[in-house]
Amino acid sequence: MDFFFFVGTIISFVLGGYIIWIHGIKPKITNVESKDVERFRDEVSKLITEFNRISNTNINILEDKIEDLKNIIKLADDKIIRLNSRLTDLGIINHRHQPVTGISSQEILSQPEGIQEVKEPLRQKIKPLPKKATLNEKKERIDELIMAGFPIEEIARAVSMSKGEVQLVLGLKKKM
Q: What's phi and psi for 41, nearest 5 deg?
């Protein structure tokens, strides 16, 4: 009898636990889980929507900036062409800038017909500065030689400076 009582007790505990699980605990857990999952899905959906909105806004801003940069490049190319044309008229340079983008070859060919290519004048030998020349004298001589179209190497020899020093002087002058 003890055996049947023991087995009956175990069966009643198992059945009681199963009934409590089915009617008491499982519905609460299922409700909590489905509410949490639904809330998580809503949050993820909101985040994805916000991400898409922000990325579309940033893409539009970048496209506007790209268009602005293209316009700036076109303006710069136009100005370079006009400047080179004026310098050619003065005989300072003998070539024209070819724009990277934005200007057709017909526009370049429609430059005033009176403008002709200037042949590079025969260069005279550069008379070197004395070794005791001041920095200001060297700067003035560098300016003169640049305007005359001499290459950096020849200018450096003429003023007894390295190419790097001449380029530095020119770079600093541009920044002023």
A: -60, -40
Per DSSP, the residues of 82-130 read HHHHHHHHHTS-S--PPPSSS--HHHHHTS-TT--PPPPPPPPPPPPPP
Domains of the chain: 122-176 (1.10.10)
DSSP codes, 115-168: --PPPPPPPPPPPPPPTT--HHHHHHHHHHHHHTT--HHHHHHHTT--HHHHHH
Neighbours of 172 (CB within 10 A): 10
Residue 159: both structure tokens together: 């003023």
Phi then psi for residue 110, to 5 deg, are: -85, 15
Question: What are the pLDDT digits (tens) for 3-21?
Answer: 777 777 888 888 788 787 6
Measured CA distances, 140 to 35, 47, 132, 133, 167 (Å) = 82, 64, 15, 11, 14
| pTM, two decimal places | 0.33
Nearest residue to 87 via CA among 109, 66, 118:
118
Q: Is the dihedral of CA 84, 89, 90, 96 positive or negative?
A: positive
Give Cβ neighbours of residue 117 (< 8 Å, ≥ 6 apart). 88, 94, 95
